[in-house]
Structure to design on (1287 residues):
């Protein structure tokens, strides 16, 4: 049962959140010319690191905000959290 | 013209009486349904140039931090997210009151008055009841009177509005469709202490 | 004579004024308040309590608490019956009933003991080598036999009648264990202003202070414990919990604790929970869980009457009970001598066998001063006594301590053994602490921590009282200061304890001459030294393999009294040091937890929350049969008289096509969308165009995932220039809202749009059928309901009896239809009003099943077709895909596979015999006589009985669907041995031009 610090609401228990995948993925621009390979990378391919991972969480039972979390995928240690338009401090 | 029948969300679930371990006990919990509140969500548009600090609704300002509530006798303004608030009032004409202060060009203003089942629980053991189903830190230094919090209670999304601590008194809001399960969950947790449904 | 094994003094914690009667194996005994089932049985001279797991050997009590491996009983009967409960953890309560397990017909005479006689056929891992031949014997003979023999107690077949509750707590410092170090740290932390929870598994606080002869300050250890608890009780920032075990350590300092609330109360009130599960989030956790004594392995060391020396002492000091009157103390260290001294206090002279050459420890000297002679350099080789020990063979060890030089038989009625101490490191290990082996104490201690936990006292390998207190006060202060900054330390008082000499590194006795009695290491799983030797002979080297092959340490007690001895023995054989051999990982729970406690109150109908529409009570009163749609309860059909489902559904659907029906569609998702960029946002989310939708009009919309698959569909209306009302399917309502929020917050934060769920604000009623217009005209006389006044996909606001109503002209059934939305408090009223006015139009309610029939024969796709594997082209929605703009998922649609023209697409199927309903999920094949593997053309997604044509009709998704129309194929279900010849038709079976909705 993780404890996650929502950047808006403070520390809350994992039951209030929903996991949202890799935070480093940038969606290609609308209307942009893009190769099938690059599009497939965006849609399907993800790294699977053991260690520090930058990921999205959604505070579904709280402020309904999406935000970023830096978490170790092996030990679950959470290093930092921040708003979508910010960067991690740690 | 017939008068349309207005049925509150917990109309069929809330039954009056004494329940649980109530014999020979003082300090029974009191549980009641709060009906006919006006509830509006207002959310400031990003491109609006309105200054939030200058806005007051029913003479109340808009809190800018999580947990915070601005309140008077009739109306409470609850922080609900960045630039988002819930306005809850006993005033039937809350909509007019809101439009006295803000406009549709600056805020998304949506009436959700009939979308919530509302229970009030008060008494010495009210906090104990909440601690049975919600992972929130209810210690006095973390959650204080006139704080509000959105969380879960036994899997159901609820909004807790902390009205008073002499004795503890909370208004609990859940989506109305969850009404029956929500009512059961709260009252079941109250059986151990004994409660009066009023 | 009852209770003939009680001590003469009464300085323990039982209350002899309160007699308690209980039954064991049908015999009534009595004990006292404060007794456990174990202590009360021992006091009555009962030691034979069960039979071991594999060999069915007679077993008695080994320990006094949570470490007990043998004395598992079946507690209570009927629906409260509970198997595998250790008698040492059961508090005596009036009328308690317990029985032995794993024996038949009785614990005294057990047929299963044949296993012991034939033990050479059942060594470790025997099941890997037997029960294989002949193959046919497995299901009929071996399996049932093994099934009967397996397990210990019996699981009850009736529902658990007790209440179990949950609780969430937050604190600064959680202290686990109330021995000297735990009490010290709790006191220091609390005095320094921190919020403290102190958890103690037993019914009494104090731990070793309740049994050790020590002084702290000018009080006895026991008095100091009591005084400290009083202080803690008076502090508002402290929560004390006894009978509470912290059994699991999880992420981010979340620990879970089980509190035994009323197991010890004779007639608890109806609403008092039996047990309470606490989820505790602590800033810091202090692990002061003490240590567990190690047994010694020697011949037949498992007979009833053979106990741990510290257990014997605790039985005397706390429970005023004697484990025997002719004890042998067998030890490799000094601590067992305190047990000897306690016997002496009770006028019993023990025989003492010590493996060491000598010892000058204080306790040893004290025993010698009382005139007791000690057999040094000796060990126990074997024991005798079938149902209870009656003698031991004591041998003189040679200088290498690897064989016995001489042996003598000595009478005894109990052996109190001590092989030293194992720190209880389980919680630290669960928290991810990398343990290290401490050579001095020959045990693992916590070393590299991964979470905010600190082990102190014996749990940290600090075995003296002085160290424990010092650590406790220091750590309690240091950790609490992180939270309070009050800087108010508490000094550790002086303490007095005996001094101890070193133990001997010897935990396994050699075999007696000429014999090979079993020397047990793991009592609960019946693993002996010979089993470990066998595993190593067969090539299993790592401790993980030895453990699994022999099942050492894998029983319910998780090896509390066997792990280390097993490890030691393996390292001795392999001639490696223990840490190299490794240690097994500790997993929660520390001891077994009843499932009811984990479930809490989510039982019966409240297993999951349910969602109901405001009209729900009307459905109930009108005989609706409900179906779960996610968490919602929706009416499936409304049977009349003796109708079965098919009759009811056909009647309801036919009535919609002929007259008018109403359906509760409140559950469909509704999302309010406002903002200057709302039209642009919809344009990016949906496949079709939205910028020019006129105000007051609705439009059907389809949205895709980025991989091109259809995600959801719905009807969205424009209420004003920048204000839209979106609808979604019931199933995807929550997902669509999250999807919209994701794109607005993460991908396109520059768009200025607010989205909010309004599903619950409005009640929705579908009014469908040729007479729907006439019906609604009567209800809303002020609205122009003509085809021109309110055209298809139009909407209008009106009111009735003072309530607001919004009427949409939209249709899911394919008939002329409307959807009336009113604010939820009036949902039930509006439904009743429509039913009342509708009587003259032959109105009937219809449920989800009839709704399905209507849309299926119209060829309208729903969840079964939009299952995440279909793109718009596949389900006949290609015309919805704009070629002029980009939107979510568009780029995927131009991938090669998605542009092939013979993709699986939707068609209709009619069985050739016009009678046989085609099961959903059936495969479509071309040639019924082909031999497997047969190419599959597609599958059947939805089936119904067409009320329009009075025959079965299905929607299927098959390869090159369009070009198969007119062909005959087969729908097959090999699992059910079904093969149905079908004709392929257009999926738009009824009203293909869509003229009814536009009429």
């Amino acid at each position: 049962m993780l404890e996650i610090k929502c950047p808006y609401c403070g520390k809350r228990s994992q039951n209030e959140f929903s996991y949202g995948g890799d935070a480093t993925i940038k969606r290609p621009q609308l209307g942009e010319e893009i190769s099938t390979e690059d599009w497939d990378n965006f849609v399907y391919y993800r790294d699977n690191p053991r260690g520090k991972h930058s990921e999205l969480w959604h505070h579904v039972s709280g402020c309904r905000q999406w935000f970023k979390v830096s978490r170790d995928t092996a030990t679950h240690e959470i290093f930092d959290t921040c708003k979508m338009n910010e960067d991690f401090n740690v | 013209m017939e008068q349309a029948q207005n049925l509150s969300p917990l109309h069929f679930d809330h039954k009056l009486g004494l329940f649980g371990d109530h014999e020979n006990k003082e300090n029974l919990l009191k549980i009641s349904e709060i009906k006919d509140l006006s509830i509006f969500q207002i959310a400031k548009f990003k491109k609006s140039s309105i200054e939030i600090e200058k806005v007051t609704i029913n003479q109340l300002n808009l809190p800018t931090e999580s947990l915070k509530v601005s309140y008077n006798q009739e109306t409470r303004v609850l922080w609900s997210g960045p630039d988002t608030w819930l306005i809850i009032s006993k005033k039937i004409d809350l909509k007019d009151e809101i439009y006295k202060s803000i406009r549709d060009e600056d805020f998304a203003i949506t009436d959700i008055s009939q979308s919530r089942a509302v229970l009030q629980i008060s008494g010495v053991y009210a906090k104990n009841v909440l601690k049975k189903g919600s992972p929130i830190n209810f210690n006095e230094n973390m959650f204080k009177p006139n704080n509000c919090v959105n969380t879960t209670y036994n899997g159901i999304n609820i909004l807790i509005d902390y009205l008073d601590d002499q004795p503890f008194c909370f208004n609990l809001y859940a989506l109305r469709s969850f009404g029956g399960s929500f009512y059961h969950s709260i009252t079941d947790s109250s059986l151990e202490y004994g409660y009066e449904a009023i | 004579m009852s209770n003939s094994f009680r001590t003469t003094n009464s300085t323990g914690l039982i209350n002899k004024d309160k007699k308690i009667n209980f039954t064991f194996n049908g015999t009534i005994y009595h004990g006292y308040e404060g007794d456990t089932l174990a202590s009360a049985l021992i006091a009555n001279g009962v030691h034979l309590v069960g039979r071991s797991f594999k060999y069915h050997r007679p077993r008695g009590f080994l320990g006094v608490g949570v470490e007990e491996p043998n004395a598992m009983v079946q507690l209570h009967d009927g629906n409260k019956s509970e198997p595998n409960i250790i008698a040492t953890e059961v508090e005596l309560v009036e009328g308690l009933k317990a029985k032995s397990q794993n024996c038949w017909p009785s614990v005294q005479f057990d047929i299963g003991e044949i296993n012991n006689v034939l033990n050479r056929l059942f060594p470790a891992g025997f099941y890997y080598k037997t029960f294989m031949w002949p193959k046919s014997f497995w299901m009929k003979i071996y399996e049932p036999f093994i099934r009967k023999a397996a397990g210990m107690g019996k699981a009850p077949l009736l529902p658990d009648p007790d209440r179990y509750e949950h609780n969430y707590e937050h604190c600064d410092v959680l202290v686990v264990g109330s021995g000297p170090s735990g009490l010290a740290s709790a006191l220091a932390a609390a005095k320094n202003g921190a919020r403290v929870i102190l958890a103690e598994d037993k019914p009494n606080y104090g731990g070793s202070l309740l049994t050790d002869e020590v002084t702290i300050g000018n009080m006895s250890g026991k008095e100091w414990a009591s005084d400290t608890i009083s202080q803690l009780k008076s502090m508002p920032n402290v929560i004390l919990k006894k009978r509470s075990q912290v059994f699991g350590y999880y992420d981010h300092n979340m620990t879970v604790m089980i509190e035994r609330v009323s197991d010890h109360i004779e007639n608890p009130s109806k609403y008092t929970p039996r047990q309470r599960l606490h989820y505790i989030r602590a800033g810091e956790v202090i692990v002061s869980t003490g240590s567990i004594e190690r047994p010694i392995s020697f011949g037949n060391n498992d007979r009833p009457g053979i106990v741990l020396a510290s257990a014997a002492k605790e039985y005397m000091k706390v429970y005023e009970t004697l484990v025997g009157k002719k004890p042998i103390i067998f030890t490799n260290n000094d601590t067992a001598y305190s047990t000897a001294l306690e016997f002496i206090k009770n006028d019993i002279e023990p025989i003492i066998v010590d493996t060491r050459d000598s010892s000058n420890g204080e306790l040893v000297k004290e025993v010698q001063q009382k005139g007791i002679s000690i057999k040094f350099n000796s060990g126990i080789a074997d024991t005798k006594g079938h149902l209870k020990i009656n003698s031991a063979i004591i041998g003189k060890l040679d200088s290498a301590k690897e064989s016995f030089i001489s042996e003598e038989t000595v009478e005894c009625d109990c052996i109190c053994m001590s092989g030293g101490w194992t720190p209880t490191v389980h919680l630290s290990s669960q928290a991810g602490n990398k343990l290290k082996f401490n050579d001095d104490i020959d045990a693992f201690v916590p070393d590299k921590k991964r979470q905010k936990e600190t082990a102190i006292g014996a749990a940290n390998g600090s075995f003296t009282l002085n160290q424990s207190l010092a650590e406790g006060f220091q750590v309690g202060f240091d950790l609490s200061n992180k939270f309070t900054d009050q800087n108010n330390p508490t000094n550790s008082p002086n303490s007095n304890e005996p001094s101890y000499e070193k133990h001997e590194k010897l935990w396994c006795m050699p075999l007696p001459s000429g014999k090979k009695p079993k020397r047990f290491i793991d009592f609960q799983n019946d693993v002996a030294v010979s089993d470990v030797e066998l595993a190593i002979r067969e090539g299993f080297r790592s401790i993980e393999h030895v453990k699994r092959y022999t099942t050492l340490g894998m029983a319910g007690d998780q090896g509390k009294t066997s792990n280390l001895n097993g490890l030691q023995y393996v390292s001795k054989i392999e001639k490696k040091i223990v840490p190299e051999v490794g240690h097994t990982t500790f997993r929660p729970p520390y001891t077994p937890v009843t499932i009811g406690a984990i479930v809490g109150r989510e039982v019966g109908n409240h297993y999951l929350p349910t969602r109901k529409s405001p009209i729900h009570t009307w459905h109930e009163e009108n005989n609706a049969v409900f179906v779960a749609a996610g968490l919602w309860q929706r009416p499936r059909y409304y049977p009349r008289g003796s109708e079965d489902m098919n009759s009811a559904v056909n009647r309801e659907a036919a009535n919609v096509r002929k007259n008018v029906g109403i359906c509760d569609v409140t559950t469909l998702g509704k999302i309010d969308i406002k903002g200057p960029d709302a039209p642009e946002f919809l344009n990016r989310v949906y496949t079709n165009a939205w910028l020019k939708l006129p105000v007051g009009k609705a439009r059907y919309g389809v949205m895709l995932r980025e991989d091109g698959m259809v995600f959801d569909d719905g009807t969205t209306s424009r209420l004003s220039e920048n204000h839209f009302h979106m609808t979604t399917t019931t199933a995807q309502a929550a997902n669509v809202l999250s999807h919209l929020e994701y794109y607005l917050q993460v991908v396109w934060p520059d768009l200025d749009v607010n989205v909010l769920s309004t599903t619950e604000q409005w009640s929705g009623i579908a009014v469908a059928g040729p007479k729907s217009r006439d019906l609604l005209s009567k209800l809303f006389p002020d609205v122009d309901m003509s085809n021109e006044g309110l055209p298809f996909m139009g909407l209008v606001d009106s009111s009735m009896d003072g309530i607001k109503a919004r009427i949409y002209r939209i249709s899911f059934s394919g008939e002329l239809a409307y959807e009336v939305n009113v604010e939820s408090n009036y949902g039930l009223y509006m439904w009743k009003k429509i039913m009342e006015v509708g009587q003259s139009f032959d109105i009937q309610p219809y449920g989800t099943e009839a709704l399905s029939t209507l849309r299926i024969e119209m060829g309208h796709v729903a969840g079964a077709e939009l299952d995440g594997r279909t793109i718009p082209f596949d389900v006949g929605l290609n015309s919805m895909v704009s070629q002029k703009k980009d939107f979510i998922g568009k780029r995927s649609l131009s991938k090669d596979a998605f542009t092939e023209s013979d993709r699986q697409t939707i068609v209709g199927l009619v069985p050739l015999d016009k009678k046989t309903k085609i099961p959903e999920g059936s495969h479509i094949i071309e040639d019924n006589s082909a031999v497997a593997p047969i190419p599959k053309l597609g599958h059947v997604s939805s089936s119904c009985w067409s009320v329009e044509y009075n025959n079965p009709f299905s929607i299927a998704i098959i390869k090159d669907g369009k070009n198969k129309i007119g062909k005959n194929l087969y729908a097959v279900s090999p699992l059910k041995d079904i093969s149905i010849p079908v004709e392929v038709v257009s999926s738009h079976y009824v009203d293909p031009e869509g003229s009814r909705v536009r009429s």
About this structure: Chain A has a mean pLDDT of 96.
